[in-house]
Amino acid sequence: MLSKTLFLATVLACLTGSAFAQGLGGPSSVQTELQPGDGLIEPQFRSNFPVNIAPRYFELKEGWAERGFSFNFDYLTLGQTSNSDLGQGDATGGIFRIYGTWKATENGSLTFKLEDRHVYGDVAPQNFGFDGGALSITGTTCQ
User: Fold this and answer.
1) Half-sphere exposure of 80 toward its Cβ, with a 13 Å CA cutoff?
2) Is there a domain that residue 45 lies in?
3) Whose CA is closest to 132, among 79, 78, 77, 91?
4) Are 120 and 94 in contact (CB under 8 A)?
5) Would residue 29 count as lying in a domain?
6) Which of 24, 101, 44 is nearest to 68 (CA)?
7) Which is nearest to 19 in space by CA: 28, 8, 6, 10?
């Protein structure tokens, strides 16, 4: 009985500590991706791109963030080629993602991430290894 009580107390202490306050997301979580900064340390060159080519968009986005709605989007692509006699010989695909958070009230928020995974051609990068005779997945960008 004492061990169960100690275990429960330890779990509650962890949940009420910094892990609960910071969230349990990793490096690719929505909260991490929305944080400002590029991960570079000084004296790396920094540019205002794309802020300098679309200032009205970023002003609008900042205004929404001040009211509790933060979002971002990105596009990832993967292309692979092989000189094997088996399979197609190439595979290309992409992912469009939009993600963000909406702080609806002081005590609650909504976090979202939407993805569109698509393939250019007949074989997805995820299946390219199998198509060319490999025994493993060679890319995980698309299904």
Assistant:
1) 27
2) no
3) 91
4) yes
5) no
6) 101
7) 10
| First-residue to last-residue Cα distance in the chain | 49
Rg (CA), the chain: 22
- pLDDT of res. 29: 78
62 domain residue, yes or no: no
Full-prediction pTM beyond 0.85? no
**The pLDDT of residue 56:** 94
Residue 28 lies in a domain: no
Instruction: Give residue 107's domain range.
Output: 70-143
Which DSSP string corresponds to 94-128?
EEEEEEEEEEEETTEEEEEEEEEEEEESSS-GGGH
pLDDT along the chain (143 residues), means of 10: 43 40 65 68 70 90 94 91 78 92 91 92 80 74 62
Number of domains in the chain: 1
